[in-house]
Write a structure and sequence with these properties.
Largest sheet: none
Distance between the termini: 70 Å
Number of strands: 0
Strand content: under 5%
Structural class: mainly alpha
Shape: extended
Order of helices and strands: HHH
Number of helices: 3
Amino acid sequence: MTRRFTGLELAELSFWAEKSTEICHQIMRTVGQRTDPNLAAEPSGHYLREVARFSESFAAFAGPGFIPKGLYRYASHADANRHWDECVAQAMASRARPGI
């Protein structure tokens, strides 16, 4: 069964929705100074090159995983993070200099 709100209830709901939006805008802050690029009438190859470079570097991690398969048990989160860092560094080094 659906409930119908009276005009007064709707006004109160609207008031609280506005108030919560104001509070959210007061709490949030902007960090950094990067701005989004403006859209241009004529496309530029600059952003296409940036995206292609990002895609190539991201695609380097495709294929076999960089953490060897197996069951790992760690004494602490620090040990797990250290193992992760070592595996990622080793994978990056092997993909940066193939054949080594």
